[in-house]
Specification:
single chain, 477 residues, alpha/beta, Rossmann fold, Helicase, Ruva Protein, domain 3, six-stranded mixed beta sheet, two-stranded antiparallel sheet, 47% helix, binds adenosine-5'-diphosphate, binds magnesium ion
Length: 477
């Protein structure tokens, strides 16, 4: 019997067991099955039967029983082109020609057939069946419901679930600007991992600590330790603050909720305080998750200046919401980031229990970063140490730009293999551009302009330039 049959029978059994056992919830279905039966948050008329707790007319997103198994749903869930053909020979299956529904006619036969072919590893990927079989007399394996639940990706990490939730909270027309203020990413949509980042020892220690705290949050709650789980990433632009937060989300399989404070402009003020509130509500509903608030200096700036009262109100709402959210109670890890720590006031600092420094990379880190970002490239005579020497003051993001430049330059000669020389030229190019960029800001600094002309000869071994790039211009990459 083919694997296709096993896949389809698993699907049939799962839909049948799930439909009957009301103690099972969405997190008991494997993600590929959930996707098939997920219905979005608004619009449709057949309201989800379990969504009546808030009395609102809006339909709750979710999965409603019974789950129907048809050729179409089975195909979508299993990826098998002709599901019915795969199981039509079995004596316990039947297909209703009219509705297309595939059913199991004799559950005990189907279960026996399935148990003969499934192993524990596979059963652990399906909490619905793990629960069904764990106490089953004919099952003698070790798989448990608990372990299967633990292994199964939580529904909060599914894109469909996130979209449904956002729709439920934010009216598309009314809150259009909201979509600029907050962005939610499923962990699977985050591309960067911690392996792609070169971290300082200090950063690694702090991240380890927080990972441990998350793992043991029941214990922390029990001993009354609640002031934990609010991190502030501090450092110049391009030093990996955003990437690190995202990589954490991806590596810990948590949804990533990003708030962009600069999007709070006077234009949308009427709704902003309310939307800030909603954002935190969404984060709580998505929990466990990471709530990332970039450009945190915006908070302090707003409180200082004599801005619009409504803008201040929005910012105060934000601070209050931060106070009211907790890793221990709400399973929300809050990460703030700022390029301008000097602009933060006490009220802002006070909100965070760990400050993590993101300095510009030193020589060794630059060499490591160069190694990491060139992993997929072919480079002749590659000497990252030498490049690291020539790139003092550059950030990880600058180094990426240098590499990009080198790749594009080589492509103009139809080369996909780079040379060390290409990289050194790209460094020169970058330095020149960086100088010109800074020039804009230094009024009438003609001498600097002239000096910029021979910046390129930096590879002479001596680092007479000792340039500390002033990256105050927020080039956000
Ligand atoms: N320490 C680092 N290791 C590897 N890549 C880095 C590092 N710092 C920055 N980068 C790269 O530079 C780019 C910009 O980083 P980002 O996280 O947006 O910086 P920030 O948020 O601090 O401005 C990203 O592509 C990132 O991968
Ligand atoms: Mg950033």
């Amino acid at each position: 019997m083919s694997d296709a049959a096993l896949d389809v029978v698993e699907f049939l059994l799962t839909t049948s067991v799930y439909s009957d056992d009301r103690t099972l919830d969405e997190n008991d279905l494997p993600p590929s099955f959930r996707q098939v039966f997920w219905t979005g948050g608004s619009g449709g008329s057949d309201a989800g039967s379990d969504g009546d707790d808030d009395g609102s007319s809006r339909r709750r997103a979710g999965i409603s029983r019974p789950l129907s198994a048809t050729n179409a749903t089975a195909r979508e869930a299993t990826g098998i082109e002709r599901p019915w053909e795969a199981v039509s020979e079995l004596m316990f299956t039947e297909r209703d020609e009219f509705s297309g529904t595939i059913t199991i006619t004799q559950r005990d036969l189907a279960e026996e057939w399935f148990l003969e072919r499934v192993d524990d590893e596979r059963l652990l990927e399906n909490p619905t069946l793990a629960k069904h079989f764990e106490d089953h007399e004919t099952y003698d394996g070790e798989a448990t419901h608990e372990e299967a639940r633990e292994r199964n990706r939580p529904i909060q990490a599914d894109r469909a679930w996130i979209d449904g939730l956002l729709e439920e909270y934010f009216d598309e027309e009314e809150d259009e600007d909201m979509l600029d203020l907050v962005e939610v990413r499923a962990p699977e949509e985050v591309e960067i991992t911690l392996d792609d980042l070169v971290l300082t020892d200090d950063q690694e220690n702090e991240l380890d600590k927080i990972a441990k705290a998350i793992e043991h949050r029941d214990y922390l709650s029990q001993i009354g330790l609640r002031e934990i789980g609010k991190l502030l990433f501090v450092g110049p632009p391009g030093t990996g603050k955003t990437s690190t937060a995202q990589a954490l989300a991806r590596d810990m399989d948590l949804p990533f909720v990003e708030v962009k404070l600069s999007m709070i402009t006077s234009q949308y003020l009427g709704e902003t305080a309310k939307n800030v509130d909603k954002t935190f509500e969404v984060a709580k509903r998505l929990s466990p998750c990471i709530l990332f608030i970039d450009e945190f200096d915006f908070v302090a700036k707003t409180r200082r200046s004599d801005e619009h009262a409504a803008l201040k109100r929005a910012v105060n709402t934000l601070l209050k919401s931060i106070d009211n959210i907790s890793l221990i109670e709400d399973d929300v890890l809050l990460i703030g980031a700022t390029n301008h720590p000097d602009q933060l006031d006490d009220a802002a600092w006070r909100r965070f229990d760990e400050i993590i420094n993101f300095p510009k990379p030193d020589y060794n880190m630059r060499a490591d970063i160069l190694q990491v970002i060139t992993r997929q490239m072919k480079i002749e005579e590659f000497d990252p140490q030498l490049i690291a020497e020539a790139t003092e003051g550059l950030t990880g993001s600058d180094l990426r730009m240098v590499l990009r430049e080198a790749v594009l330059e080589a492509l103009t000669e139809d080369r996909t293999t780079l040379t060390q020389e290409d990289l050194l030229n790209a460094v020169e190019e970058f330095e020149e551009r960086d100088n010109l960029k800074n020039m804009d800001m230094i009024e009438g600094d003609h001498e600097a302009l002239v000096a910029g002309g021979d910046i390129g000869k930096a590879s002479d071994g001596g680092h007479s330039h000792g340039h500390d790039h002033d990256h105050d211009h927020d080039h956000d990459h």
